[in-house]
């Protein structure tokens, strides 16, 4: 096996803990699943996973050293991520409790929107950039050679776990979407809570030192 087995076990355990812990990506997939059904939840997950492929590619290219040498670049990315999270939160609150609530499968979030927003939510999330670019290379052992193959294996596992965890969240959320669609008050509270969480996360990222 081109990946050192002891490091691989640690990688699996740590990645699972990180994936299961609720964060912006999981909350967004949950919201897409509820508002757009299981398909939207899965496509939001696909968008998140696509951005992870970008992160892994950057990690393989050695951008962890680049960010260490150019902290301004990371600061710009952190502020962009914070702004996007605040935008998502405002959008969720603005669309709370519509007068005409349709079934979740036909409401607010199209398949294309779910994918693109899932992609952007993760792509500009500095927490995930930090995790992928700074954390993933620690499990690559240059002494084993085939460095790109090691990244490929770890990246494939990472993306697979992303689909497993967030995809499950999206599908389960979609199954209760119709129920929430018939209960405007519950949906309004959900939109308000989700929007508040996104805005809070965005503000925290904006004021947090990198």
UniProtKB/TrEMBL annotation:
<keyword id="KW-0472">Membrane</keyword>
<keyword id="KW-1133">Transmembrane helix</keyword>
<feature type="transmembrane region" description="Helical">
    <location>
        <begin position="114"/>
        <end position="136"/>
    </location>
</feature>
<dbReference type="Pfam" id="PF01810">
    <property type="entry name" value="LysE"/>
</dbReference>
<keyword id="KW-1003">Cell membrane</keyword>
<feature type="transmembrane region" description="Helical">
    <location>
        <begin position="73"/>
        <end position="93"/>
    </location>
</feature>
<protein>
    <submittedName>
        <fullName>LysE family translocator</fullName>
    </submittedName>
</protein>
<dbReference type="InterPro" id="IPR001123">
    <property type="entry name" value="LeuE-type"/>
</dbReference>
<keyword id="KW-0812">Transmembrane</keyword>
<feature type="transmembrane region" description="Helical">
    <location>
        <begin position="148"/>
        <end position="169"/>
    </location>
</feature>
<feature type="transmembrane region" description="Helical">
    <location>
        <begin position="6"/>
        <end position="30"/>
    </location>
</feature>
